[in-house]
Amino acid sequence: MPPLAGAELIQTPVQLYRHLLRCCRQLPSTAMQQHYRHAIRQGYNSHSDEDDPERIRMIVQRAITDADWILDKVRMKAF
Asked: Signal peptide: which range, if any (predicted)?
């Protein structure tokens, strides 16, 4: 599947955080949404002191890839 819409525009951790929270709205159940929202918050808080631009870029790329995978998995189960 193609990457999530708007993912190529993400440049800062705050943009990533907001993008991932918006992606949670696409999940089917409230329990799933709450689970992933909590995981996103935890990940954001644990990496909030990161200041290496290369490491931040890697974290952003990985988070977008993971979000794509999760949403693809949910979509596949729906069919």
From this structure: none
